[in-house]
Design goal:
Elements (H helix, E strand, L loop, with lengths): L10 H12 L23 E5 L2 H11 L3 E5 L14 H7 L4 E4 L5 H8 L5 E4 L8 E2 L2 H10 L29 E2 L7 H18 L4 H25 L7 E4 L5 H6 L3 E4 L11 H13 L4 E4 L6 H10 L2 E4 L15 H16 L3
Helix pairs in contact: 1-6, 2-6, 6-7, 7-11
Length: about 350
């Protein structure tokens, strides 16, 4: 389960390469003529629907005064298993722009595909996805591999996925959608969302560009804080409720061990729990992390069995009154503080 750290790539160089390769966005043109310049809101704002909090944050920060943002996933709702009502599905058709992340919420993916909205912005099209999770995720994937007519050698976990030349080794597991927890990848998505809003509302393109640049600068600073803050630690391994932090771990040379896999509701096997006992002892783990939106029962039981501390590492799938901050940047800095404490950072 060990992971080799990939070579460090600066956010500026990553974004420059990403912008050139993207062209810079994916817009799905369907039968609707909504989303013309000026916006469809009563006050002339662009009506943007976001699938869940990380997409909502980008839309609000980049759109500023020119957008009115609604989210499909209400605060406190675990987004992975979100179901949409017929009313919510119908309301999607009224959006000028939809910003979502494919693969995290199947019901949302299906509803968006049928919405007929002209400007559909899909976050994973702006960055690369990798395979993370546990061996149990990998076993589950193998059960369904024969049903995937597109399965090929690129998805063989004995080979690097999409990064054959970066010297990076991947854990077995499912394709991981949690890209927003890596500030560099999140900045790549921000660049794409900014360009998408400018395409949908060209009259305000200059403001969207300026807001995008400002947000990317903040994310670059956040990346530098994580790099510095996690450079020197007593251990590089942390245990968390579900495999949400694979991209963050890779970015900063850490090793995530998850109780559950990519799906926070999956139950770990007895074998997995025994494996975590061994990892905790061998890697000098001090803390078992749980989350704000998922059950903490298994994490607390494991911590009690091992005599370890518990702490919160927030996957930022939603902001509630229990969150350690009011927005993405504040909660990410709280996550950094929690990791520094758990890993024994100097």
């Amino acid at each position: 389960m060990s992971r080799r750290r990939r070579p460090r790539i600066s956010p500026a160089r990553t974004l420059a390469a990403g912008a050139a390769a993207l062209g810079v966005l994916t817009l799905t043109a369907c039968g609707s003529d909504s989303g013309t310049a000026g916006g469809g809101g009563a006050d002339g704002t662009l009506e943007v629907t976001a699938s869940f909090y990380p997409m909502e944050f980008l839309a609000e920060r980049i759109g500023g005064e020119h957008v009115s943002v609604t989210t499909l996933t209400k605060p406190g709702v675990e987004p992975h298993d979100l179901d949409l009502s017929p009313k919510e599905t119908a309301r999607l058709t009224e959006a000028d722009v939809i910003v979502y992340l494919k693969g995290l919420q199947p019901a949302v993916d299906e509803a968006i595909a049928q919405s007929g909205v002209q400007h559909i912005v899909e976050a994973t099209s702006f960055t690369s996805l990798e395979a993370h999770g546990t061996d149990e995720d990998h076993a589950h994937d193998d059960e369904h591999a024969d049903d995937d007519e597109h399965a090929d050698d690129d998805h063989d976990h004995d080979h690097d996925h999409d990064h054959a030349d970066d010297g990076h080794g991947h854990d077995h597991g499912a394709e991981d959608p949690h890209i927003w927890l890596d500030p560099v990848k999140y900045a790549e998505v921000a660049q794409g969302v900014g360009t998408a809003l400018a395409e949908a509302d060209p009259d305000n393109a200059a403001d969207y560009e300026a807001n995008t640049e400002a947000l990317i600068a903040e994310l670059t600073t956040l990346d530098e804080e994580f790099t510095t803050g996690l450079a020197d630690t007593e251990t590089r391994t942390f245990i968390t409720t579900h495999a949400a932090f694979g991209y963050l771990a890779e970015r900063y040379g850490l090793h995530e061990e998850a109780i559950a896999g990519i799906d926070p509701e999956s139950e770990p096997s007895a074998a997995r729990l025994r494996e975590l006992h061994e990892v905790a002892e061998q890697d000098n783990v001090s803390t078992v992390f749980f989350e704000t939106l998922a059950s903490d029962a298994t994490a607390r039981t494991l911590a009690d069995d091992l005599g370890l501390k518990t702490g919160v590492l927030d996957p930022l799938e939603g902001i509630t009154d229990r969150s350690a901050g009011a927005d993405y940047l504040e909660v990410m800095r709280a996550n950094l503080a929690a990791l520094r404490d758990a890993l024994g950072a100097s």
